[in-house]
Amino acid sequence: MQAEAIEWAAGSAIAPSLLASPRIQLRPWKDADRAPFAAMTADPEVMRHFPATLTREESDAWVDRAMQKINQRGWGFWAMDYLAEGAPAPTFAGFTGLNIPAPELPFGPCVEVGWRLAPQFWGLGLATEAARLALRAGFESVGLEEIVAVTTLRNTRSQAVMQRLGMQESVADEFDHHAFPADSPERRCCVYRLSRARWSANSLAGNLQNQS
Length: 212
Prior knowledge:
Blueprint: E1 24-27, H1 34-41, H2 56-73, E2 77-82, E3 91-99, E4 112-117, H3 126-142, E5 146-152, H4 156-164, E6 168-169, E7 175-176, E8 188-195, H5 196-211
Antiparallel strand pairs: 1-2, 2-3, 3-4, 5-8, 6-8, 7-8
């Protein structure tokens, strides 16, 4: 199913159980998320591979757009809570989810999986775990035939996550991202792809391995 053909009725939210693991819950955004998200997007290390850090107004506008898309489609970039072992309550950790890029990327239309976490949650495997939830929602609930992931060639950390997700790099789809200045070393981006068939085969293999 191509991105332009996707229809998802307002209010037809994906079941919360599909967006949860023992450590993670993907959920709609709350106003309480705005301050910690703004702190993330103002952090140069978090935004190292993005065009620029965001002001509080720009960060709030990003959250507004994410909320609007979830309300319209039932899916999007969800806020992400992390429940550490022994913690009394979940903690906002960033976002993970699915998105239709706008403007359309050179190889589009497409649906991408994406994530961004606060630094204190790096190195725990949370991006991979949360992205797997988003992929499952995209393939099982939205009915996508393919999901892609995009990052700069210099962002090897995100590429490692994509590889752990079973995605395959599509070298022919490399492109210069319009959001970066022409002389930016981050401008050149790579594309990873994952088909529904490959995702199903990987999931089956993982289940069989766990049962053995």
